[in-house]
Write a structure and sequence with these properties.
The chain is an alpha+beta fold. 26% of the residues lie in helices and 19% in strands. Helix 3 crosses helix 5. The chain binds N-oxalylglycine and nickel (II) ion (NI).
C-alpha cells in the first residue's frame, strides 16, 4: 500500500468556510442520515466516563495505590476511556498549551498555509484525513507534529508563531510522555504482567509520541455533519486535552453515544488499537467521534502515545491461553498506520480486520 504524495482534491480550510458566515454547509460535509448526530438527547446527560484521581499512585500508601490501580483497571475494562485529575501536569501548562494553539489557529491564513501538509507524513496544517477522492469530509482543521522518536522531531515543522508555542509544546510533551510511562506500568501490573512489560513491548525508550491539535470551527448546521467521524485511535493510547469551554467528544458505549463532560484541567485517556492487540482484547480501543457547535469553536489536543514503529505488536504470551487464543497476528505499527492513513476514520473496522483466522 502506498500513500500518494498529494491530496486528491484541492484543500479547503474549514475555518475559512466557517468564516464566510454562510448558513448552509457545502454538500461535501453532509453525512448520510444514519451517521448524523442526534441532538434530541437529554437521556445521555447522566452518564460520564470515569474520573480518576491519580494522586493516589504517588501517595506512598500501598492501600491507596492499589485502590487507584483498581479504579484504572475497571475503567480500562469497562470503558476504555477515562479522565485523570491530579495527573501532575501544572494547570497553567494545561491551559497554556490549549490557548497557545487557539492563538495559532486565529492567525491569518497565510501564516498557517506555510505549514500546509501532505498525506505522506501528515505533518503540518491539514484539513482532511484519508485520501479517497470524493470522500465526505469532517468539519475540522488540524495541526499534526512529531515529538518522539527524536529523529522525527523537527522544530522547523512546528509553528514559529505564537513565539512561545514551541517551548510550550516541548514542556507539555515531556509531561505527557512521563504520564504515558506511568500508565503503561499501571496497566502492566493490572494485567498481571511484569511491570515493565508494556513499556518494553512499546520499544523501551524508543516509543512514538505525536500531537494532533484539532480545530473545530463554528458550524451553521451541526446536525448534518461531524467534527470528526467515528474512529478508534490506531496507536497505543491517547491523551486528549479537551476544550473546557465547549463539549463535543462522544464515546460509544453499547449502542449509545455518550457526550464526555470534561472536568476542569483533566486529561482524557483512551485505550487505542495497539493496546487492544497487546492485551488480546482484555482492554479494547473504543470508538469515538466529535460533534460540532453552531456558536462556539472548539480546540482539542490529541497526544498519541505509540509503540516504536518497527517492533512487532502481538498479544502478550501470558494473556494467550487455550481458552483465550491469540486474536491478532503480529504486525508493526508502521504497517498498521499506513493502512489507516490511506482510508481515514473508519470506526473500528481496522483493528477488527486484524483478527486472525486461526
Ligand atoms: C482524535 C480525537 C477528539 C476530540 O484526534 O483522534 O478523537 O475531542 N479527538 O477532538
Ligand atoms: Ni481519536
Amino acid at each position: 500500500m502506498n500513500c500518494p504524495s498529494d491530496w486528491p482534491e484541492p484543500i479547503v480550510r474549514v475555518q475559512s468556510l466557517s468564516e464566510t458566515g454562510n448558513t448552509m454547509i457545502p454538500n461535501r460535509y453532509i453525512k448520510p442520515p444514519p451517521e448524523r448526530p442526534s441532538f434530541n438527547t437529554g437521556s445521555d446527560s447522566l452518564l460520564n466516563i470515569p474520573v480518576i484521581d491519580l494522586s493516589g499512585l504517588a501517595s506512598g500508601d500501598p492501600t491507596i495505590q492499589q485502590a487507584t490501580r483498581d479504579e484504572i483497571s475497571v475503567a480500562c475494562r469497562e470503558w476504555g476511556f477515562f479522565q485523570v485529575v491530579n495527573h501532575g501536569i501544572r494547570h497553567d501548562l494545561v491551559d497554556g498549551a490549549r490557548e497557545t494553539w487557539r492563538e495559532f489557529f486565529h492567525q491569518p491564513m497565510e501564516m498557517k498555509q506555510d505549514y500546509a501538509n501532505a498525506p505522506k507524513t501528515y505533518e503540518g496544517y491539514g484539513s482532511r484525513l484519508g485520501v479517497q477522492k470524493g470522500a465526505i469530509l469532517d468539519w475540522s482543521d488540524y495541526f499534526f507534529l512529531h515529538y518522539l522518536p527524536s529523529n522525527l522531531k523537527n522544530h522547523n515543522k512546528w509553528p514559529s508563531h505564537p513565539p512561545f508555542l514551541r517551548d510550550v509544546v516541548e514542556e507539555y510533551s515531556q509531561e505527557i510522555v512521563r504520564l504515558g510511562k506511568v500508565l503503561l506500568e499501571v496497566f502492566s501490573i493490572n494485567l498481571g504482567l511484569e511491570e515493565s512489560y508494556l513499556q518494553k513491548a512499546f520499544g523501551g525508550d524508543d516509543i512514538g509520541a505525536c500531537l494532533r491539535v484539532n480545530f473545530y470551527p463554528k458550524c451553521p448546521q451541526p446536525d448534518l455533519t461531524l467534527g470528526l467521524s467515528p474512529h478508534s485511535d490506531p496507536g497505543g493510547m491517547t491523551f486528549l486535552l479537551p476544550d473546557e469551554h465547549v463539549s463535543g467528544l462522544q464515546v460509544r458505549k453499547g449502542g449509545e453515544w455518550i457526550t464526555v463532560k470534561p472536568v476542569r484541567h483533566a486529561i482524557i485517556v483512551n485505550i487505542a488499537d495497539q493496546i487492544q492487540v497487546l492485551t488480546n482484547a482484555i482492554y479494547k480501543s473504543v470508538e469515538h467521534r466529535v460533534i460540532v457547535n453552531p456558536n462556539k469553536e472548539r480546540v482539542s489536543l490529541a497526544y498519541f502515545f505509540n509503540p516504536k514503529s518497527d517492533v512487532l505488536i502481538e498479544p502478550a504470551t501470558k494473556l494467550v491461553t487455550s481458552k483465550t487464543p491469540a486474536l491478532y497476528q503480529p504486525m508493526t505499527f508502521d504497517e498498521y498506520r499506513l493502512f489507516i492513513r490511506t482510508k481515514g476514520p473508519q470506526g473500528k473496522s481496522q483493528v477488527d480486520s486484524l483478527k486472525s483466522s486461526k
